[in-house]
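Example with several molecule types.
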Amino acid sequence: AQSVAQPEDQVNVAEGNPLTVKCTYSVSGNPYLFWYVQYPNRGLQFLLKYITGDNLVKGSYGFEAEFNKSQTSFHLKKPSALVSDSALYFCAVRDGGIKAAGNKLTFGGGTRVLVKP
Amino acid sequence: SQTIHQWPATLVQPVGSPLSLECTVEGTSNPNLYWYRQAAGRGLQLLFYSVGIGQISSEVPQNLSASRPQDRQFILSSKKLLLSDSGFYLCAWSGYDTGNSNQPQHFGDGTRLSIL
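Resulting structure tokens for the full complex:
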């Protein structure tokens, strides 16, 4: 079974400082990893994904994520946080070793990011 | 480009009343479609998914049902709502795949359902 954990319920960071949101996963095959952001009363917006290749993935709004196979992690990062980055962030995983209809993702519980001016 | 629409944005219903939430996708064919519920602004629970017209898979036993009468239309229903059905309901789609896809899911803006 596939699973994903976001160990921090909330991350507080000052504007202009680097932001990191942690995610660890568990799959039996190769992981397909995704990050999403959710603003209040809105749906989830896709930020980036890792499938294969370079361990550093760049996405929307200046976000990037680093895949670390040995640590089974896929942490989301932004070098300089903005107040507008305050939102709820979700990590998701799909086990690429399992061929099953539906392309179902398993989501972490979410991490709330608060960027203070 | 592809777009996804959900309506209504908010809904207040009495206990015991029926429910129908609709989701439509434009700009793609034969998408996978999903219904999620999000409680208390945190984790997502997958309720149903569909890989084609009339094909519905249920992830959890509950008071809700789903239907896909057309390729790009996904409907979430209930005959009698319970207080526990309150929540934020999200529809999502992903591109057609053969069962081993790396495609992301794309979400609508949700329906906030309050049961009184």
